[in-house]
Each structure stands twice: as structure tokens, then as C-alpha cells.
Specification:
The protein is 57% helix and 0% strand. It contains 2 helices and no strands. α1 runs antiparallel to α2.
Length: 76
């Protein structure tokens, strides 16, 4: 966003016509490239959607480990 605002100043207040046209070209290329990247990201997201599902179970249904490994002393 900063680049966009920064380059507008040079397009409007450029020292000569060549400088203004260079900044206009750079800005146009940046906007076009950004648009292409956004379009590709949206196409990829629609082709490969992320599916999330959740399941609720009670604590009693969770398997509890039969063997606990440890020395039994509290850490000091």
C-alpha cells in the first residue's frame, strides 16, 4: 500500500514527462502482477478447499495409557 501512495506522488509531481511515464509503468506493472497473484491464489483455493470437521467425545472414551514411564519423584 505504501508503494502505491509513494508512486502516485512521482506520477503527479515528476520532474519531466519521462519520469512520470516510468513511474506510471512501474505502478501499472505492480498492480497487474498483484492482480495475477491474487487471481492464482483464489483459483487454487477454490480448486483445493480446506475442509475441517470436528467430533465431540467424552473424556471417558479417550484411551488412557496403561503404562506410565517416569521415576515417580517430583522435580525440585
Amino acid at each position: 500500500m505504501f508503494f502505491l501512495l509513494f508512486s502516485f506522488r512521482y506520477i503527479i509531481d515528476g520532474r519531466n514527462k519521462f519520469e512520470r511515464s516510468v513511474w506510471a509503468t512501474v505502478l501499472s506493472a505492480a498492480v497487474a502482477y498483484t492482480s495475477i497473484l491474487i487471481r492464482q491464489s483464489l483459483d487454487e483455493a477454490s480448486a483445493n478447499p480446506i475442509v475441517t470437521s470436528t467430533e465431540s467425545i467424552s473424556v471417558q472414551e479417550l484411551p488412557f495409557p496403561a503404562v506410565t514411564i517416569g521415576h515417580g519423584k517430583k522435580n525440585r
